[in-house]
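input
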Amino acid sequence: MPKSAFDPETMLEELQKILRGIKNPHLLALAEACFADAELMQLLKHAPGAKTIHHPYLSGLLEHTLSLLKLIQKVVENYRDIDVDILLIGGFLHDIGKVYEFSFDRAVEYTDAGQLLGHLVMEVEMVNQKIAMIPDFPEELAMLVKHMLVSHHGAYEFGSPKLPQTVEAVILHSLDDLDGKIQAIQNLPEKEPGSKWTAFHRAYGRSFYRATVGRDEDNQ
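output
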């Protein structure tokens, strides 16, 4: 099976370092409760990000999640009154249910629970279990965390039972969508050898042109 170009151990260490910068004690405790779950962390290191659309390879979920956290860190610098802690925990947990949605021993396939429930339901159940372990976790904060998860697909037709209704949820959806699209486009093969056009992407309904004019040689 194809795998991420990045080392999963290194990615996990970087992800944990970012999340350990969370200042809210309850959200930090939620992150630490996840880190303490050895089975969850082992699955996170190897799970794919999707079956076909974006990051559809081993450790793709971890690669996508880490990239999303880095995007969050950059974007929040440009705006006022953004709760970076809830954005970071939302970014960390937004697809965590995919570790149970997919099996990936020989190929990426949906599990029975993945088919019948989907990762949104499974990750909310998991978050409920982790929050129950944390004394005095505020009810409103728990609700806001779960809203980040159930709304991050951004539209009813894409599987979200709720639309994003906080500024942080809007940011999470937008950056999640951006990261997935960039990865998918950059990994499309050429239409034919030497072509500047990619193969047709069925989900996006188009091919993409890879311009080189004006590009810094160091960035090619």
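quick obs: The mean pLDDT is 92.
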